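Worked problem 6 (solution included).
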Amino acid sequence: MSGDFPPLLSIQNEQELFMTVVTHDDHRSPDDEEGKHRISRLREVGVQIIHLAFATHFYQQDPDNSGSDIDTCVQSTLKGDIFNVWAVNCDLKRHLRTPTQLATDENQEMRKFFEGYVGAAWSIHGLEKTHKWISHMLSRQPYIKDDAMDTDGVTAPPTGQPSNPNPPSYSAHPSGTSALHIDPNIRKLVTLAAVHEAASKRRQNIEYEASSAGQSHMPIWTVICKVNGEERGRAQDSSKAKAKLSAAQETYFRLGWNNLN
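Solution. The predicted structure is:
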């Protein structure tokens, strides 16, 4: 177990409950309807408690976070490999009774185990203690501040003023660095979720700063992507969302996160 992570909340004294939680669905007896029913209930409780703990964490991290900011942070974190990391560092993984080869994505399997374990921990220790345990684990993860972005980022022009059919688009890069030349076909494969997952795996803090200039009906957005407080990517576009994505993509390639290391 990693010293950075809290130990598992103990449920081992409840042997039947413990075995229900750590047993993979494929290892259950086909006739064990009671066990299937029990783990289903525990997982549902676990899902709700995990979501509450995540939302509370991001609420407390930044008082400027809006409701949509909090939801985006929660969803971005859940898309990473956080449950697999937790399963290893909290020493849960060695207790699991699983098939030799997991049939689906391992992180999704670990997520199911954690949801069940959280539900079981709640049934023994109560909400407050279980919530604190999750919060402690979550604080070991990099905090990803993901500003809420409009879907298109373009403000509609005032009535009577035509919109620009070909709004200007720019690319930029951090001061003192050379521009990156990335194959567009490769660049477009890198999503925000992929960038955030890469940051999470490397325990890097990532955040964005956005500003606009120009006329209100035809703004130019500049978005800066910072990693551990340092500018690593910058982009400009008439769309705030596109500028953010481009800045994140530049960061991804500039730091070599596309390499398998």
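Discussion: The beta strands are 169-171, 206-213, 220-227, 230-237.
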